[in-house]
Amino acid sequence: MRVLAIDQAVEEKNGQRVVVGKTATLELGPSQAETLALSRHLGTLSLALRSLVDASKDMPDDSDEGRRRGSVNMVRFGISSPSTLK
What is the pTM of this model? Predict the structure, then answer.
């Protein structure tokens, strides 16, 4: 999914200035938005950003079965498990 914007605030931690973002605006389809809302209700979400160059290498196409059903890859305690919204 495409990240459209991330808010930024400059804070000082341990004498250094750091940029902190707390809100991300994502480009989602209706089923993706439902899956994201359900995932947020069920637990804590984290966002991992990747380079745009990396994303183009392994982007699934729109015919991907998981994308149609609304899948989310959940990582709990370092263990990854796919979850599908039904």
Answer: 0.51
